[in-house]
Amino acid sequence: MDIRDRIEHGRERMVNFVGEERISRWRKFVPAALFASGFVFDIVTLGRIDSISTMAGHGLYLAAAVFILASLFVKPEGWQPERPWLARIVALRQEGLHFFLGGLLNAFVIFYFKSGTLANSFLLLFLLVLLLLANETSFFRSRGLALKSTLVMINLVSFFLYLLPVLVGGRGGWLFVASLGLAILVFTLMGAALAGSGVAIADVSAWLYVPGCLVVCAFVLFYALRILPPLPLSARYIGVYHKVERDGGSYILHRQTPLWHFWVHGDVDFAAAPGDRIYVFARIFAPRGFSERVFLRFQRWGTGKWLTSDRIGMGVSGGRDLGWRGYAYKKNYRPGDWRVLLETPDGLEIGRLNFRVRKVAANGISEDYVEVH
């Protein structure tokens, strides 16, 4: 019995055991299961954002996606070359583009999710997840070049948004502009090459330049509204404490909330006795060789909005897997609802923590618990 007979025999045994109707009923869930398993696999296996293999892999994926997109402009879907081996490759262009864009979108959704706060960047993540799901459906494959150009430009901008800060070792508004400029340059050169190969200028403008410009405008809007995650930084931990001490290479954090409350970062219900300070401790991941200044913005809820009381700066240096560690404290405060925002100099949010301050007498201090970071 050869291998084909073995496979067919195995299939017949499965059908007899499970039933053809039941197999047909569950077959429709296979694509969704494969998509979910692939996304979970990417979460587990995706390397550091400053990994050379990660950056090189994304660059190769983008180059392949741009090449396939250009080929669809020059030789539209349905074109059949004379050589059989080339015809087989051409027939897989759509699947190839689908594969490369899906892999890139998976990675960038994960990077954006880790870098920003869900409360602040929900809209961007929601749109990216929708596009990620659309990329897994026949809807994506059946639509024209405009949608494909849109997805390629989103991936180009996202790639340069994290690549340039990693290479430069810092971030800021000028790097955001440079990232957009490089993505526009790629599309401009691609459009010029397409026009030189005989593609009509009207088609290049409608299906390449217009979608690309819309994507760039959307990223500018997200940046202006401060809902763009600050790649490549990410908050690994942020908590509020009664005291923070440095002991050699470790930080000793004192809290009154029992340690078995593992879901609470410090004393989010802060019982403030006379003379207490509010300490905020943070661990921030930054790439190797990265140097930046971040800020802790303390805000108190009052008169129907959040009012800023202090903005305290801290220097961040990158390279440590568990993240750079630092803290700041506040002496002057009033009871009420508070939050602290961890943000970049240009106001992009890395992390946040909400907590409540209530006054207690000096003899009402609870037991002290210790964390070590």
Helices and strands, with pairings:
Elements: H1 3-18, H2 20-27, H3 30-45, H4 52-74, H5 84-91, H6 93-115, H7 118-134, H8 138-142, H9 145-168, H10 173-196, H11 201-224, E1 234-241, E2 243-247, E3 250-255, E4 269-272, E5 278-285, E6 291-302, E7 305-317, E8 324-330, E9 336-343, E10 349-359, E11 369-372
Parallel strand pairs: 4-10
Antiparallel strand pairs: 1-5, 2-3, 3-11, 5-8, 6-7, 6-9, 9-10
Give an account of the 3D structure.
The chain is of the alpha+beta class and 373 residues long. It folds into two domains: 46-224, no CATH class; 234-372, Immunoglobulin-like, CATH 2.60.40. The chain has helices spanning 3-18, 20-27, 30-45, 52-74, 84-91, 93-115, 118-134, 138-142, 145-168, 173-196, 201-224, and strands at 234-241, 243-247, 250-255, 269-272, 278-285, 291-302, 305-317, 324-330, 336-343, 349-359, 369-372. Strands 4-10-9-6-7 form a five-stranded mixed sheet, with no helix packed on it. Strand 2 and strand 3 (250-255) form a beta hairpin. Helix 4 packs antiparallel against helix 9 and helix 10 (173-196) packs antiparallel against helix 11. The longest helix has 24 residues, at 145-168. Mean pLDDT is 80; it is low at 28-32.
